[in-house]
Design goal:
Shape: globular
Structural class: alpha/beta
Distance between the termini: 44 Å
Number of domains: 1
Number of strands: 5
Helix content: 25-40%
Strand order of the largest sheet: 3-2-1-4-5
Radius of gyration: 17 Å
Order of helices and strands: EHEHEHEHHEHHH
Strand content: 5-15%
CATH class: Alpha Beta
Length: 229
């Protein structure tokens, strides 16, 4: 019996990584999910990542503690307040929610695990259309990291380089939601908010909440997370 190829999924608990994982699974990959507790203030996403991992039927889900608060200052690590009510259509600024080098750190961790389990692919849910302007979500960044991985690993040196799979890269948030819904995903399991209320409900005002709300509205699909909150 042929064993399906393995893939490392960077799983945050948000709808993008959930959808990227579902696409990889539909493409025939066995999923190994990696979630990093990096000192983020919105810890509800950790519980959401567990729900998503169960729904995706991952082979293993690793939750890794790597506190970045001392070296990667960001609104998401408590260095400042999360900005609310920004006009996302009229700003080219990199927001204070950008966590310095986060995707580089996460992809490096995934690269190590991939070599350990013999995975040929790392799956990441970055998006270059409906996003907050983070530099490490751009296609040229993903391509550059993939090239680096070929040089930095034994697998690459031996002629079996790892591939970075970023299936949402050129999709709008509405397209992502439509694709995930077609794959049968329950987005009520996910968490996107950067500044949840004391009882864990989404604030509706941070960049992530705005992008999520716009995506569901454009897709013409109710957000099940709001229906349950």
């Amino acid at each position: 019996m042929t064993i399906a190829p393995a893939a490392i999924l960077l799983l945050s608990g948000g709808l993008d990584s959930f959808t990227a994982g579902a696409i990889a699974k539909a493409d025939g990959f066995r999923l190994f999910a990696l979630t990093v507790r990096y000192g983020q203030t919105h810890v509800q996403e950790i519980d959401a990542s567990r729900r998503a991992a169960r729904a995706l039927g991952v082979e293993r889900h690793v939750e890794l503690d790597l506190d970045l608060r001392d070296i990667a200052r960001s609104a998401l690590t408590g260095a400042s307040a999360v900005p609310l009510d920004r006009d996302l259509a009229n700003t080219d600024d990199i927001p204070s929610t950008y966590v310095p080098a986060r995707n580089t750190i996460f992809l490096s961790l995934a690269l190590a695990w991939a070599e350990t389990v013999g995975a040929s692919v790392i799956v990441i849910g970055v998006n270059a259309l409906d996003y907050s302007g983070y530099p490490d979500c751009r296609p040229e960044y993903v391509e550059a990291f993939e090239r680096m991985g070929r040089l930095a690993t034994a697998a690459g040196v031996h002629g079996t380089p790892l591939r970075i799979m970023a299936p949402l890269q050129h999709m709008s948030k509405a397209d992502i939601i439509a694709r995930g819904t077609a794959l049968g995903l329950d987005y009520g399991l996910t968490h996107s908010c950067y500044a949840p209320t004391a009882d864990g409900r989404p604030c509706g005002r941070c960049d992530s909440c705005q992008l999520r709300a716009h995506g569901f509205a454009e897709a013409g699909i109710p957000d099940p997370a709001l229906e349950r909150s």
